Amino acid sequence: MNLQTILEQTVPGLGFELVDVEITPAKIIRVFIDKDGGITVEDCVSVSNHLSRVFLVEEVDYNRLEISSPGLERPLKKLPDYVRFIGRTAKIKTRELFDEQKVFQGVIQAVDGEKITLELENKQLFSVEYDVISRGRLIFDPKKK
User: Fold this and answer.
1) pTM (2 decimals)?
2) Are residues 48 and 8 part of one domain?
3) Contact present, 52 and 112 (Cβ < 8 Å)
4) Do residue 61 and residue 10 come from a single domain?
5) In this structure, are residues 44 and 32 in contact, taking their beta carbons and an 8 Å threshold?
6) Which residue, 54, 100, 106, 126, has fewest beta-carbon neighbours within 10 Å?
7) Which domain holds residue 131?
8) Per-residue DSSP letters for 56-108?
9) DSSP secondary-structure letter at 48?
């Protein structure tokens, strides 16, 4: 079984959302988890202990395991992330140019099917298909929760 499959099967069963995984050339596995109300240090310890045992059984080759919250400016990795964070400010990078730019920042207004609409800082609406987005993340705004 590959690492992604192991994590997708294990982390939700522990009560957490699997946000992202990074694997470095030095075999450091970074697992980013989240849950309603945020992540505590105890949550990270619990997931780390559990995954360490699972990795031993599954013979996952790694040097270090790090468990972390995705932070205030969490990545938006899946279409449901955009739905979940409607009303929050996001920055996206597109795979192709729109009006001679690829980076857009604004408040997520709507998700209709696979089309995401942002209200940009100039109050214009920008809509783009999810599969055209190469990267997205929330932008921390201390005024919003």
Assistant:
1) 0.81
2) yes
3) no
4) yes
5) no
6) 100
7) 79-138
8) HHHT---SEEEEE---TT-B--SHHHHHHTTTSEEEEEEEEEETTEEEEEEEE
9) H
The CATH number for 32's domain is 3.30.300.70
Nearest Cα to Cα of residue 116 among 76, 143, 144, 145: 76
Is 138 exposed, middle or buried (CB count within 10 Å of its CB: 0-12, 13-18, 19+)?
buried
User: Is residue 129 a part of any domain in this protein?
Assistant: yes
Enumerate the β-bridge partners of residue 129: 115
Q: pLDDT for 20-54, tens place per residue?
A: 999 999 999 999 999 988 899 999 999 999 999 99
Burial of 62 (0-12, 13-18, 19+ CB in 10 A): middle
Decide: 13 and 21 in contact? Cβ < 8 Å.
no
- Please, is 97 exposed, middle or buried when counting C-beta atoms within 10 Å of its C-beta (0-12, 13-18, 19+)? exposed
Tokens 């055209």 locate to 132
